[in-house]
Amino acid sequence: DPDAGDNGLLLYSLVNNQATEFDIDKNTGQIFTVSVAGKAGTFYLEVQAADHGTRQLTAGTTVSVTVHSSSSNNIVAVVLNQKINVVERNIAEVKRVLEDKLAWNIYIVEVYSNEFERKARSSTDVTYVKIIAFDGANQEVSAEDVKRKLREQKSNIETELEKIFLMSVNAAVEEVPADSTTPELIATIVLGVLLACTLVAFLAYVIFNIKRKRQYKQQYLLKQRAAIMEGIDNPCTNDRNGSLKSLEKPEHTNN
């Protein structure tokens, strides 16, 4: 805008922005990622610039952003002792500080907290910012190099972030945890454990029944054998009327 003074100041915004993947710095027009974890493809963003004139004038354009799938091995998590809603509100400035102190292009992959319920977005004082760094040749910087430089620049980064958050800031480096455990994953794990316990209980029941049947069968055979042995040892047996009857040799038999 060629105007001088307030009329020449521009404010940038995303028009009808329904997506949560991107945001824009209203003063500079810089577009940055908020969360593109697990996403790839081309996104089309409608960007508007407006001046501060009495009759506000605007201009717009479409910006296409292509997100390439990236190796998760080079993602690094920076842990800030700040509330997640505060970090999200100042994420453009956080990105600027990291780029300035690390001297690499920084892409924000995701901003999250450990909470499952994202409704209470101001109840935690720990926020994780996942980043990927790219060098001048647009090549991914290894996670180890990023961590090393973050540790080297820790005090400088914290000093600059304190100016943004207006309070003491601690910026730590943490290994990226395995995919954040979601309630769905927990439910799946619990269900799997319950099914495993049910299977074990069923197998135990089957084995117990088999052993019990074997024991009954053995007891029955022992009783039968005892009855036979008792009949051999006692030459007198009871007839059907209950009277004693000697075991007699059949009449029609050979020697």
UniProtKB/TrEMBL annotation:
Q: Does the keyword Ion transport apply?
A: no
| Protein origin, superkingdom | Eukaryota
Q: Tell me where in or outside the cell this protein is found.
A: Membrane
Any one GO molecular-function label of the UniProt entry: calcium ion binding
Sorted alphabetically, the keyword list is:
Calcium, Membrane, Repeat, Transmembrane, Transmembrane helix
Which residue spans traverse the membrane? 185-208
Q: Name one GO biological process term.
A: cell migration
Principal location? membrane
The Cadherin domain extends over 1-80
Listed PROSITE patterns = CADHERIN_2
Cellular component, GO annotation: catenin complex
InterPro entries xref list: Cadherin, Cadherin-like_dom, Cadherin-like_sf
Q: What is this protein called?
A: FAT4 protein
Q: Please give the organism.
A: Aramus guarauna (Limpkin)
State the encoding gene: Fat4_0
